[in-house]
Design goal:
292 residues; alpha/beta; Hypothetical Protein Tm841, Chain: A,domain 3; 2 domains; six-stranded mixed β-sheet; 10 helices; 13 strands; globular
Length: 292
């Protein structure tokens, strides 16, 4: 029996692709000057204006998603008699996944015959989104809910999520990097390489000098750690630095030609924590790739 694939806007899946694959996307909120906003349509998101505003000093804040929001989005699917596979934002950077767990507990008594499987992506942006995309392909290929859950969980543990930022200010302000004090400041033009670790927390793992060196380092890590890259969908997200994203793409293609490369402007919710100039790369590697 088929089942619904559900994720959230932090998955950063291009809207046309989400519609094509029948992936339900739950909106997350962000706040500018106290005004709540959402971004359900990635095609309509003006990334340049958003990140320019942050560059100009606009403070963007976020808040934890409540269990009620998940209940509101899960319930109509369950009412139709469908089971759910939910792929959520990393529990290492947000409490939203725990809210999904609480929602499942509340819904279990009302829909005892339905199955809700939750996958903690341990990632954000396309580190989350590529899992939901893969899940949709598995479902449409005839995989059961349980088989899809186990396969996606395995891919999750082998997904490398690495990125660099122009400034550590945003991660420092929001407390999203656990070892940020170990990183040298930007006055020396030192650029940190960061990753989602085995528990989905953001940690700095390397430092290089200069922006170009950081982009080259991301491409080099792909070359060293990707497995069967020719059959992979690779993800690149950027905080309004499309030229850098294109440079990273070209460097990757010098090594091999992936099945597909999805490049997106980083969505606004988690984008508020990484800031303008963030450049991220997502791909599958070996069993220990999260520990690089």
């Amino acid at each position: 029996m088929s089942f619904a694939i559900v994720t959230d806007t932090s998955a950063n899946i291009p809207t046309p692709l989400a519609k094509k694959l029948d992936i339900t996307v739950i909106p997350f909120s962000y706040f500018i000057d106290g005004q709540e906003r959402t971004c359900l349509d990635t095609e309509a998101f003006d990334g340049k204006a958003y990140y320019d505003a942050i560059r100009g000093g606009t403070l963007v804040t976020t808040s934890q998603v409540t269990p009620q929001r998940y209940i509101e989005w899960f319930s109509p699917i369950l009412e139709k008699g469908e089971d759910i596979l939910f792929v959520g934002l990393s529990s290492g950077v947000s409490g939203s996944y725990q809210s999904a767990v609480m929602a499942r507990i509340q819904l279990a008594s009302k829909y005892p015959d339905r199955d809700i499987q939750l996958v903690d992506s341990l990632g954000a942006s396309l580190g989350e989104g590529l899992l939901a995309i893969k899940a949709a392909y598995l479902r449409d290929g005839g995989k059961s809910l349980k088989d899809t859950f186990y396969e996606i969980s395995d891919i999750r543990d082998r997904t490398c999520q690495i990125f660099t930022v122009d400034s550590l200010e945003h991660l420092r302000r929001t407390g999203r990097c656990s070892n940020i004090t170990a990183v040298i400041g930007t006055l020396l033009h030192i650029k940190p390489l960061l990753k989602g670790d085995e528990t989905g927390h953001i940690v700095s793992f390397k430092k290089v000098k200069g922006r170009s060196s950081a982009i080259e380092a991301l491409a080099r890590l792909f070359k060293e750690h990707s497995i069967n890259a020719e059959n992979q969908i690779i993800g690149i997200s950027h905080g309004d630095c499309a030229k850098d994203a294109e440079m990273l793409k070209q460097l990757i293609c010098q090594h091999c030609t992936p099945k597909e490369i999805i490049t997106v402007c980083h969505e606004p919710v988690t984008g508020a924590h990484v800031g303008p100039g963030m450049l991220a790369l997502f791909f599958e590697g070996g069993d220990k790739v999260r520990g690089i």
